[in-house]
């Protein structure tokens, strides 16, 4: 059956094909229901499509043409601004470049570029001091990661607004 399914679609990933063929060897080691579940999972078009997408993304990720040349562009910008500050009076082009580079939008663009180039995508918590006095209270640092659902306070305020709209007391 595996060969029939794989013959229908010539885009199967070789790693998935090896996994499917190795299931035959594992049939004696596991429950038949588990083997059938794994076989149906590995033969699914969805998994094969995900593996193909992963392979293509991994191939593009290895392409050096898309890699940033520099991950410290903000530092370079500050050095350029320092050099231009002494030469602004010499040329209107220098003055215009100096004002352009001082623009907060331009600096934010370079800051975003640096964060992506350094693969620094998540916010960081402050460092926890290793040396603590015995008399000090301990502090727990909690990080909230918001999902698609609103926080409880948001739901409560929405409910209060709903009640106020229905009555004349608010």
TrEMBL record:
PROSITE patterns: L27
GO cellular component: cell junction
Domain of life: Eukaryota
Pfam family, one: L27
InterPro entries linked to this entry: L27_C, L27_dom, L27_dom_sf, MAGUK
UniProt feature coiled coil, ranges: none
Domain L27: 12-65, 66-124
Protein name: L27 domain-containing protein
Protein source organism: Hermetia illucens (Black soldier fly)
């Amino acid at each position: 059956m595996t060969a029939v399914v794989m013959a229908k679609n010539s885009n199967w990933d070789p790693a998935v094909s090896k996994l499917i063929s190795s299931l035959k060897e594992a049939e004696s080691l596991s429950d038949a229901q588990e083997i059938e579940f794994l076989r149906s999972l590995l033969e699914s078009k969805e998994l094969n499509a995900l593996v193909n997408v992963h392979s293509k993304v991994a191939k593009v990720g290895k392409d050096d043409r898309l890699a940033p040349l520099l991950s410290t562009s903000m530092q370079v910008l500050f050095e350029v601004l320092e050099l231009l500050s002494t030469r602004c009076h010499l040329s209107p082009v220098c003055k215009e470049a100096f004002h352009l580079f001082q623009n907060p939008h331009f600096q934010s663009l370079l800051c975003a570029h640096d964060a992506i180039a350094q693969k620094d995508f998540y916010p960081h918590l402050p460092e926890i001091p290793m040396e603590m006095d015995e008399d000090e209270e301990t502090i727990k640092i909690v990080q909230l990661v918001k999902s698609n659902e609103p926080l409880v306070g948001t739901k409560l305020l929405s409910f209060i607004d709903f009640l106020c709209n229905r009555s004349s007391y608010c």
